[in-house]
């Protein structure tokens, strides 16, 4: 593990704290300034999950030099200034042993993302994560759990601290970010069972309690989000009963603490699961409950996603009118743009996901040409680091084209999925692709179909079914 400590004799180390950056914030609170950073990022097409904690770390001098995404945002916010003008060390001075850590602040596990606030900036570390994930073992567990693995060893072993502190809450929040990062890149199949251990540790911390109410609230919120993340890993890997249990745990925590955001998230995931499990009426009701919880939160993007969850339920009920009405709401809300109230967990929800979920609705209703149009747009729009979703959208497109009588195009889209299976392990994607191959079997003579079927048949059994 790279040390976060740089010898004090180094002349390029910035003063502690970063007074220049603090002056730029002026009278704004750290949270208000973080919101301004997120707005500036959107103006230039960047995506950063800046919050008050990140601003505090910068001002304390813990972040000697921001990662490239934050650098672009800060220089956009303060044109004409350099990183040095903003109180940071030159990037060249933080290369070598401490480089990644300097960008990230507190130490990260070997092979882990450099910055949980913008984890996709370092292709070398991304490749380390990919190799660790595909080979399995303890390395990926460490990469997944981040400081949780260090902070909660005792809790996981059944010996929780007498009282949980802010450090435990922070470690829990970090673990959620890292699990989501690996899921975005690689899918759930290789990650689910390893992610269950920190969830048990989180429950042990809840039992231990906290001396401060603010810390207790963070622990419950963090444990709830972790339960949802682990539930999603179960969901995506086809373990529907496990997913339902985890979602129910998160909903119970939300209700106990009056956390409307967590409640909306739990109902959102429950609606999606119900749709996939063939319970469309439950999907509609859960999505509507999520919308009731979310309305006071002020996030149009969240309400847009929840309307899509409702649309999926109506499609499962073969209610085209109900589906179209929910889709129209989702599109209108999405069109209002992102906002400061959007939850951090919604980083995946952009135009590509909107198109992909609409494609699933039309596919469920049997409108294959319309489904294919939206699926193609989703696949083309999706950012590269969301590898699992790229595979999902191409698989959706392949299936819609196959069922719509366009076998050659379906085979080409299916081949794109096969190209991604070296880094993506998702039972949901694999099941969709297996269904597509069955539809294409009678069309072996069509251009490219035979080669696609042969390549699919050569996959290891765990990936082909």
From TrEMBL:
Residues 92-125 are annotated as: Disordered. InterPro entries: TPR-like_helical_dom_sf. It comes from the Bacteria. Residues 115-125 have a biased composition (Basic and acidic residues). Gene3D superfamilies: Tetratricopeptide repeat domain. This is C1 regulatory protein. It comes from Streptomyces tagetis. The lineage of its organism: Bacteria, Bacillati, Actinomycetota, Actinomycetes, Kitasatosporales.
């Amino acid at each position: 593990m790279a040390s976060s400590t740089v010898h004090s004799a180094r002349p390029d180390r910035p003063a502690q704290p970063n007074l220049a950056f603090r002056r730029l914030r002026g009278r704004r609170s750290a949270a208000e300034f973080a919101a301004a950073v997120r707005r500036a990022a959107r103006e230039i097409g960047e995506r950063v999950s800046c919050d008050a904690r990140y601003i505090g770390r910068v001002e304390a001098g813990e972040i000697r030099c921001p990662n490239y995404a934050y650098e672009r945002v800060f220089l956009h916010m303060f044109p004409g200034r350099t990183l040095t003008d903003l109180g940071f060390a030159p990037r060249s001075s933080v290369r070598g042993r401490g480089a990644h850590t300097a960008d990230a602040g507190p130490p990260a596990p070997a092979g882990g993302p450099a910055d949980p606030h913008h984890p996709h900036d370092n292709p070398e570390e991304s490749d380390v994560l990919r190799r660790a994930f595909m080979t399995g073992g303890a390395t990926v567990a460490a990469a997944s759990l981040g400081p949780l693995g260090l902070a909660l060893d005792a809790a996981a072993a059944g010996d929780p601290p007498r009282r949980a502190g802010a450090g435990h809450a922070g470690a829990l929040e970090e673990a959620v970010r890292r699990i989501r990062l690996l899921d975005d890149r690689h899918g759930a199949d290789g990650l689910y069972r390893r992610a269950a251990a920190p969830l048990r540790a989180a429950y042990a911390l809840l039992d231990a309690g906290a001396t401060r109410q603010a810390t207790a609230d963070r622990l419950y919120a963090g444990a709830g989000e972790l339960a949802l993340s682990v539930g999603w890993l179960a969901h995506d890997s086809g373990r529907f009963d496990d997913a339902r249990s985890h979602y129910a745990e998160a909903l119970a925590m939300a209700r106990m603490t009056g956390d409307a955001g967590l409640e909306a998230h739990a109902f959102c995931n429950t609606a999606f699961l119900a749709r996939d499990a063939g319970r469309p009426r439950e999907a509609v009701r859960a999505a509507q409950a999520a919308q009731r919880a979310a309305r006071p939160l002020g996030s149009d993007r969240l309400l847009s996603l929840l309307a899509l969850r409702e649309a999926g339920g109506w499609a499962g009920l073969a209610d085209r009118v109900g589906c179209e009405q929910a889709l129209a709401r989702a599109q209108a809300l999405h069109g209002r743009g992102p906002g400061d109230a959007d939850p951090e967990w919604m980083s995946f929800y952009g135009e590509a996901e909107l198109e992909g979920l609409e494609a699933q609705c039309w596919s469920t209703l049997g409108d294959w040409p319309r489904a294919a149009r939206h699926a193609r747009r989703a696949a083309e729009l999706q950012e590269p680091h969301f590898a699992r979703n790229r595979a999902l959208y191409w698989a959706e497109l392949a299936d819609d084209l196959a069922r719509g009588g366009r076998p050659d195009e379906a085979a080409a889209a299916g081949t794109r999925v096969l190209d991604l299976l070296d880094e993506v392990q998702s039972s949901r994607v694999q099941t969709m692709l297996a269904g597509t191959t069955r539809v294409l079997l009678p069309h072996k003579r069509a251009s490219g179909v035979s080669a696609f079927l042969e390549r699919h048949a050569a996959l290891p059994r765990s990936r082909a079914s």
